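User: structure tokens for this one?
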Amino acid sequence: MKTIDKNNMLTFGGFIVLILLGNGHLFQTQLPQFLNYDHGQVQAGQWWRIFTYPLVHVSWYHLVLDVSATLLLWQELKGVPATAKIVLVSCVSMMVLLVSILFSPHLATSGLCGLSGLAHGLALFAGLHQVEKGWKELSRFNNVSSAGLLLSGVIIIKCLYEALSGQILFGTVHLGDLGVPIVHAHLGGALGGLSFYLLFNLSGWSARLQCEPLESAQVAGRSSRVVEQAQINSISDDMRKRAMSSSAKSKSSNVRVWIGRWAHKLLSLRYDIEISGLDEIEPDPTRGTIFLPNHPAYIDPVIVTTGLYEKFAPRPLSDADQVAKPIVRQVMKVIRPIIIPDVTRNGRGVAAKVRAGLQEVVKKLNEGEEIILYPSGKLYRSMYEELGRNSGVEYILKHAPDTRVILVRTSGLWGSAFSRAHGTPKPKTLLRNMVLFTIANMLFFGPRRKVRVDMVEETTLSTLGSRHEINRYLERYYNATAQPNTTVPLYWWQGSNPGALPEPGESDSLPTGKSGRGDGDAPSCLQKGGCT
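Assistant:
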């Protein structure tokens, strides 16, 4: 307990010192300000302002208000590891700045300072953490979880009101100078708190905290030395041997399953996902397995791959240009993709590299690995999959004939913001819509798009002779459940009923292999003549 008290005192003391440094201008008006966010100064090389801006305040009233709220909320994080708190503050502060820059053009002239955005992030994280804590202790809502839900709801509604109205809630009742309010800063804080809450669970910090009540009961009435020795003795030699002999592959598999489950929890906020057929497909360590999905939208690889992580560890084929990007490059280290350049972007000059990539796929399949390959190599341009004269599947099956083939068909995404049904998706627009969707629907109450993923082990494909036969066979399977351009509302007050939109460049004739019937039953919505 003494160590914890010392750490708290050091943290508090350090915070006060930083606050004094950031607000020296309140004591001496001639003191230059070097910690607030100033767009011009940051561009000139004063990068530290990106991290120090929350320390600065425009008046004593502003300072007392923000610091008091932050310290009160900080007490709610009792028991959260110090490292987690540092990451929380960093995550929230950066999200406040990012959202403010995106949605407040006048930030370049007004600058940014203050702890209020951080306070909103701390409040939302504390509320969500209380909901989870109360639920896990009693497996139902109680006073703890209800209070957390109330706090989370108030923060979300407040941030939503401010973002939509452009006015700070209760702004007229303040008793002192608050400067020029950046209303989207509070929205950024809430998003930062939400982001860290998800990271907090994924990292394992939350799971470790759940053990604290049990540990507290065990140490009651005992000295810490006795408890420590008892815990050491309770670990059997057999458990030690198992822990030491666990392979890196097993750890990697656990991480993938973990990532897959949490990714599906996040996806379920917007998508009602049904995966059919995966339960009947078991891993086969004696031979390679290739998964062949269709590609209606940018989001379907995330849905399919994370769904497969429950049982499989498929390596995808990735575009060399995309993998080279800084953030993507770090993610790819976990996914371990096979790199193949995009012919449509780089031309036929990269044909040799494409062939080398396919040879690598064949090699890995013959070694018993699992690969996920998109036969079309491109996003849908209409409600139907078109493979054209692509030869990737033909080449792989010819040179790895013993490969196990799993067909994967995703339906329900044509018409989403991640598809080309409305033109090429723009990252900035997608980010803005995701932010608004999360806040406006209070995280859990947004309309959901129905998405179905069918998986089936295929034995006929390898017996087909020509590229034309293989591609037409795949097209018939993928297009058996083709659905028209469908939009789903973004916000709860718009309802949840999907709406049909005209197809881009709609034609009366169907392309080859698009009869709408094939190997696989159409979902019930198509059999009844309607779509969701």
